[in-house]
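Q: Please design a sequence for this.
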């Protein structure tokens, strides 16, 4: 019996890792997790998270790594795409509305709340300052862009990678920088 086990280990070099101390179960769990991740990505995201969102339009794709805070305060229009590692953080008094055909690049962050910064009190103890965020239709937010509370982005706008949007952007504008500034308009 021992000779047969050695032969199996030689034929399958990873077998010693898989069979010792529950390693096989961990290996199977990792494989299942990988397939579930792929299925969630192909089908447009987690059904549980989608069901908690206030509105999800037709054909919306949500990466499994996207994060939502107060999902009941978030609306997403038809055929929009929420990319990997995006954070969409609504707040009790700050809903977030994302229009139709919107593209969020990887790691985009949208916040509808901000900390108070008054002197004399710890920042973490100050009440949040909530304000709604509205992103129009056919908007593209490049990778790592940040949209802050109270901002409205007009239809057809493009926000460059890494930009920080702190004020409203007009329709069809192309913006970049920190803070984001209009640098051109779509033709």
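A: Design:
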């Amino acid at each position: 019996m021992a000779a047969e086990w050695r032969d199996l280990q030689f034929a399958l070099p990873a077998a010693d890792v898989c069979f010792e101390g529950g390693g096989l179960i961990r290996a199977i769990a990792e494989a299942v997790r990988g397939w579930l991740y792929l299925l969630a990505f192909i089908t447009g995201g987690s059904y549980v998270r989608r069901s908690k969102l206030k509105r999800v339009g037709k054909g919306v794709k949500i990466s499994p790594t996207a994060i939502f805070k107060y999902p009941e305060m978030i609306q997403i229009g038809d055929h929009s795409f929420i990319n990997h590692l995006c954070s969409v953080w609504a707040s009790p008094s700050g809903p977030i509305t994302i229009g139709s055909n919107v593209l969020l690049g990887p790691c985009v962050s949208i916040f509808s709340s901000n900390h108070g910064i008054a002197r004399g009190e710890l920042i973490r103890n100050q009440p949040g300052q909530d304000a709604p965020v509205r992103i129009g239709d056919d908007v593209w937010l490049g990778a790592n862009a940040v949209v802050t509370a109270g901002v409205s982005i007009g239809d057809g706008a493009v926000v460059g990678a890494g930009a920080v949007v702190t004020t409203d952007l007009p329709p069809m504008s192309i913006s970049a920088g920190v803070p984001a500034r209009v640098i051109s308009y779509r033709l």
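Q: Thanks. Anything notable?
A: The chain has two domains: 2-38, 44-185. The chain is about 20% helix and 25% strand.
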